[in-house]
Design brief:
- By secondary structure, this protein is mainly alpha-helical.
- Helices cover 81% and strands 0% of the residues.
- The chain is built from six helices and no strands.
- Helix 2 runs antiparallel to helix 3, helix 3 runs antiparallel to helix 6 and helix 4 packs parallel to helix 6.
- The longest helix is centred in the last third of the chain and has 21 residues.
C-alpha cells in the first residue's frame, strides 16, 4: 500500500527503483535485511511526500541534523557499494543543512529525517 502510493508520484525514481529491487530480493530470497532496507527507503520518501507535523522547533531540527550528520559519516565507507542510496542521503542532508541555515526548520527537520532513514537503509545492508 505504501509502495503503491509513493510509486504513483515517483518523486525520486531512482530511490523507488532501489526499494523495488530490495523488495524483490526480500520476497524471492527471504532476505530480511533487504526488506528492512526497502522499508527505510520508503519511510524516507514518505517523510518528504507526506510530511507529518514534526514541528518547527530549532532545537529539534538541530538534534536531527546532528544525528543525520553522524550517520552520514558512518555510511561513507559504503558509498561505493550503494552509490545511489548514498548520493540521495548526502543530497537530503545538504538540503536539510541549507534549510536550517536559512531558518526553515520544518524542511530542515523533514529532510534530515529522510537522510537519516537512508543511512539506516545502507547500514541494514552491510
Amino acid at each position: 500500500m505504501r509502495y503503491l502510493a509513493l510509486k504513483e508520484d515517483m518523486i525520486y525514481e531512482d530511490l523507488m527503483r532501489e526499494a523495488e529491487i530490495f523488495i524483490d530480493i526480500a520476497c524471492e530470497k527471504g532476505d530480511k535485511k533487504a526488506g528492512r532496507s526497502a522499508d527505510s527507503i520508503l519511510q524516507a520518501l514518505e517523510n518528504i511526500k507526506f510530511p507529518e507535523s514534526f514541528g518547527k522547533d530549532r532545537v529539534v531540527a538541530s538534534k536531527r541534523l546532528r544525528r543525520a550528520s553522524l550517520l552520514l559519516n558512518e555510511t561513507t565507507k559504503y558509498s561505493r557499494k550503494y552509490p545511489q542510496i548514498y548520493a540521495y542521503q548526502l543530497l537530503f542532508y545538504q538540503v536539510a543543512r541549507e534549510n536550517y541555515r536559512v531558518g526553515d526548520y520544518e524542511y530542515a527537520l523533514k529532510y534530515s529525517i529522510a537522510s537519516y532513514n537512508l543511512g539506516r537503509a545502507i547500514l541494514e545492508l552491510r
